[in-house]
């Protein structure tokens, strides 16, 4: 089974190996290949939205993965989620988004949901996805968005300690008005347990939930 992971930064390639580690744990026989467009996220941030050109770039990334013989494609970027929906329509290989399963769980279990991000372009796609999943379940939820501005750049510079303290500060403030916190980016995932302990709120993060769903899809493919 060949799994292609699509990235919009090198964070999960060189900084946070969480996705590779989870796949090794949950789908140990898989062959993993990586496809990275390290500029498209910066383009989306600069343009304050996903343009047709950015959709095309993600489609090209998915098509490259398909051409390489991937059996399934896993998107590691939450900000480009809507562009992956476009890409999925242009390949025959199944596409799984990292935050799909997390959004379903948030929609099913949360009422007042805080969405915490360190990249501004992730807030709307994650919030919209949760609202869509809630509508599909016949539930009404409210969402409060919170941006931890600058923390992602700090993480990419290698200063994990400062990144973590910035995220913790925002999470503690957010916890005062919500009953669940959703980490909109997998780059914060290793903080989930600590954040839940400190905020006394359920904290959802996408990597394990997302890779568990990926493993389920892989099992269906090989059955």
From TrEMBL:
- What InterPro entries does its record include? Asp/Glu/hydantoin_racemase, Iso_Racemase_Enz_sf
- Family, similarity comment: Belongs to the HyuE racemase family.
**What's the protein here called?**
Aspartate/glutamate racemase family protein
* Organism of this sequence: Cryobacterium breve
């Amino acid at each position: 089974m060949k799994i292609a992971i699509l990235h919009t930064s090198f964070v999960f390639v060189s900084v946070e190996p969480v996705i590779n580690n989870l796949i090794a744990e949950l789908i140990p026989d898989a062959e993993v290949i990586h496809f990275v467009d390290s500029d498209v996220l910066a383009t989306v941030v600069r343009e304050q939205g996903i343009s047709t050109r950015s959709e095309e770039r993600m489609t090209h990334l998915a098509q490259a993965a398909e051409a390489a013989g991937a059996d399934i494609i896993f998107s590691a970027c939450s900000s480009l989620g809507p562009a992956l929906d476009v890409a999925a329509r242009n390949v025959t290989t199944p596409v799984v988004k990292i935050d799909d399963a997390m959004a379903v769980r948030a929609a099913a279990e949360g009422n007042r949901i805080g969405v915490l991000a360190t990249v501004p372009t992730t807030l709307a796609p994650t919030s919209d996805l949760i609202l869509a999943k809630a509508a599909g379940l016949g539930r009404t939820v409210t969402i409060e968005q919170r941006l931890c501005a600058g923390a992602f750049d700090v993480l990419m510079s290698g200063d994990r300690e400062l990144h973590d303290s910035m995220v913790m500060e925002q999470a503690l403030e957010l916890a005062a008005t919500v009953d669940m916190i959703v980490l909109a980016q997998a780059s914060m995932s290793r903080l989930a347990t600590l954040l839940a302990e400190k905020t006394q709120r359920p904290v959802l993060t996408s990597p394990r939930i997302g890779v568990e769903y990926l493993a389920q899809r892989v099992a269906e493919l090989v059955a």
